[in-house]
Amino acid sequence: MQEVFKDFSTGGLLKIGNELLLEPYRKPKQVGIYIFIRTTTQKASIEVDGVPYTISEHSLLALTPIQFLHYTEGRNLIVYQFNREFYCIKDHDQEVSCAGLLFFGNAHIPVIDLGEKEQRKFDTLHEVFVDELETEDTIQAEMLRMLMARFMIMSTRLLKAKEGFSETANDIKVDLLRGFNLLVEEHYKLEHSVSFYADKLFKSPKTLSNTFSKFNTTPLQIIHERIILEAKRLLIYTDKTAKEIAYEIGFDDASHLSRLFKNQTQQSPSDFKKQLKKSF
């Protein structure tokens, strides 16, 4: 079973299915999207960033786009995959955002054990997800995002209650990247330079660049992607002009945002807005 939702106006993508969604990771590769893997009646074996994990029955784990996944074994899995444009395009509470506890709060992949009560709750939510994926109307995208928010709230509560859970990172490189992401989330509207975040982290820009290259990204790319994501949000959900949006995101000259937006999306903000109007 595999259900796919695509939001052509935003580029949002959501996939729900079984272990077949993990077949592309039979050879180690960067995840590239957000993934939840839920085991049911059987264990699963994976490697994340070269570290082997055996995931016990009735467990849930979260993976971020920056990690490398090698899927080796697993049956009767329930898998959710989504990109930034699907979920992160909307504002969420810090703990359940794309920079929240599940994805950027700990150095290691969070594995959550599900008791019988939690299993029933997630089973019910999964049924609603599947039903909604088969209901195509103008509010389907919003409904699916609400369901994913509920999924993440449930998961975050369990993670926070997990005995021995610690937000203290042990992997310096991963912790540095996540710390950078959290700082960008806090300051991106005012600060666009790598040097600002490097100072906050007591690192040099060169150190950040060398570290992030291990994750196939750069500090500046992360900053730019967050800026463009916010610009898309404001273009989609407000009536603000491109000029107003540019000022809100911290650009003194709207043309600077326009050039960055076009470089990242191959469209100008105005063309993106026109495409949205055609799709509704």
Descriptive notes:
- This protein is an alpha+beta fold.
- The longest helix has 22 residues, at 140-161.
- It has 2 domains: 2-161, Jelly Rolls; 172-279, Arc Repressor Mutant, subunit A (Orthogonal Bundle), CATH 1.10.10.60.
- The chain is 46% helix and 18% strand.
- It is globular.
- Strands 1-2-9-4-7-10 form a 6-stranded antiparallel β-sheet.
- The protein contains 11 helices and 10 strands.
What is the total tally of β strands?
10
Unreliable residue stretches: 166-170
CATH architecture level-2 label of the largest domain: Sandwich
Strand sequence of the main sheet, in spatial order? 1-2-9-4-7-10
> Counting H and I runs of at least 4 residues, what is the number of helices?
11
| Beta-strand share of residues | 15-25%
**What is the succession of H and E elements?**
EEEEEEEEEHHEHHHHHHHHH
Structural class: alpha+beta
Q: What is the assembly state of the chains in this entry?
A: single chain
Instruction: Tell me the count of domains.
Output: 2
Q: N-to-C terminal Cα separation, in Å?
A: 29 Å
Query: Could you name the CATH class of the largest domain?
Result: Mainly Beta
- Basic shape: globular
Pfam families: HTH_18 (PF12833)
Protein name: AraC-like DNA-binding protein
InterPro entries: Homeodomain-like_sf, HTH_AraC
Keywords: DNA-binding, Transcription, Transcription regulation
